[in-house]
Protein 1
Amino acid sequence: MNRYDRQISLPEIGVAGQEKLRQAKVLIVGVGGLGSPIALYLAGAGVGTLGLVDDDNVSISNLQRQVLYTEAEVGQSKPLCAAHRLQGLNSEVNVETYPFRLDPQHAGELIKRYDIVVDACDNFTTRYLLSDTCHALHKPYVYGAIQGFEGQVSVFCHGEGAKTYRDLYPDKAGMLRMPPPSRAVIGVTPAIVGSVEANEVLKLIVGYGEPLSGKLWTIDLRTMQSYIFSL
């Protein structure tokens, strides 16, 4: 148990919590800027099975923030490269790869195999699909989004009176008509926001703390102001 001694020593986790982590199955949709810290910290914590969904290849412009990858992997599949890196970090973790874009045809069948779904994507269409599918299947959905120096995190489809992505952004048609948001971002923004998402996943698995169910956490890294709003 030496690998996990530091977190097992926490009374909120202990041996029982570590066993819950070992048995957990978490699907990460997107293994880019947000997906990198999420996947690394969940693998490091000993989450038993990680599923990685992404249809993209590594590019040189990714490396400013997507710390799962190296220059030698440019042009290669992100999920396959990420799996290699994660199993190098923790060989006890089972990593399943899905090198395609999630769509309505695959979403239900894939999501039902996992306990928790984590949003590390970058588009509204996928977020509505994740929220609707998780709501139908009663699967917790950990949401995160970033732009520039700002980010936000919530937990949907979980707990009494569970909220969904549609409670945050009810006008799907209006959202999809909007021009794509700017992709400008400093590398530490996904590092911080992705780490908060990973913490929400660990909370849900182990049962410590108070998940962001029905709440929205935001941060502005220029001022370090953060807020929690009720949805």
Protein 2
Amino acid sequence: MTMRTTARLFSVALLSLGLITGCASTDEADDSPSAAEAIAEAKVVNAEAKSLGYEWRDTGKIIKQAEAKLAAGDEAGALALANKAIKQANTAIAQADYENKKFLNDNAVSSVSDDSSSTRGAGDGVTSYSVVRGDNLWNISGKDEVYADPYQWPLIYKTNRDKIKDADLIYPGQVFDIDQNASASEIDAAVNHAKTRGAWSIGDTEQSDRDYLAR
């Protein structure tokens, strides 16, 4: 990640915490990038998000809209759209970084605590899992007592399709069944879907997810 991208991520975080305001002085405004520069940056940052598999569904479309406004001479409109695309792409990269760090952290500590909310079956793996705050299908699947592989999260999604409307949105208190008897082909299909799913956004059921569930 570039120094400029890191600085923008830090600024976004400060804004969200209310530590700085969104207003800039006239001198600061003079340092703002042009619409063309912002569009170029949006493309670079979004390409990074895409390479991580975390590109938001509409970011590329917003960049195209910004280019169209710039071509029509609407500098302000183009800049606003480009900045929106940059913010989305930076958020996507932050999500990827968070997921990776959380996965590494989860695997650095004991996978089963004394107050574990999971229920073990006859085998080594759990047969059910109670969602707690901060959970997502990726990190649940990565737990040693579940699948010890975050890329197998589609197995949980498919097994609990009646409880999960959006694979990117689960809630504390939900209890998911964990299929410990999936066949090799089912596991391969799940991992392949996780790696090739494409762009996603919270609150929507992606077409790629529908196709996976239909198999």
Protein 3
Amino acid sequence: MARRDGRELAFQALYSWNVGGVDIDTLLKFDWKEPEKLEDMGSDVLTFARLLTTGTIEHIDEIDEIIKKHLVNWDFERLNKVDLAILRISVYPLLFQKDIHPSIIIDEAIGISKEFGADDSYKFVNAVLDNIRKDLPEN
């Protein structure tokens, strides 16, 4: 559950960055969460969320190109901003966190999209991430 909390925080931060233009220093404070909830999450969760957020933003061009390459009959510019944030925070670990199995990353993305996305977002997110996973080089 701890990693899930971290992924949700990173998703919310990336969404705010994309939609609201919030700067990264402000994002990494997670001010929108109640202080006691942040404290309950613990430092490991916050560190993981910060890693996902900063890593995704640092590699945003590469991540977006991979997403664009794997969209079938869909224009990147028309992507729902919630789905885009979920895809971005999921592609980052697929590419750069090889210690996390791709199926875990995809399952977490599906869970977040069921909670925060539109009714069928999880199907779209699953399809795009699964296509990306299939193209990843084997370790």
Protein 4
Amino acid sequence: MSKKSVIVGSILILLGVVVTIISDSGSATSLIPAFIGVLFVVLGLGGNLKPELNHHFMHGAAALSLIAILGSLGSLIGRGSTGWALFSQLATTIICLLFMVTAIQSFKAARIARQENQ
């Protein structure tokens, strides 16, 4: 999962930077996906560097994905975004939702494997 966290983080960083450049946005809010992406990368690298703590890092990444989903949807609904902001918020929501589903499946598989080894 830590590798997936780094990949998702890299995609979000790319999304934030590309949307900011293409939209010619002068606002730091267009970089929010990139900021979230940096956190995903840090959590993923932390899991790689400290395998004994990987499950904690990945639970943190799952929680981050939930916060990103709620934040993106909340902003999307609250502001009624259009154009590149709409694209960025939808893309962030979908990317984080896919990560969260994958994380939940991984957590379930790990729990089943632990129970079988007991």
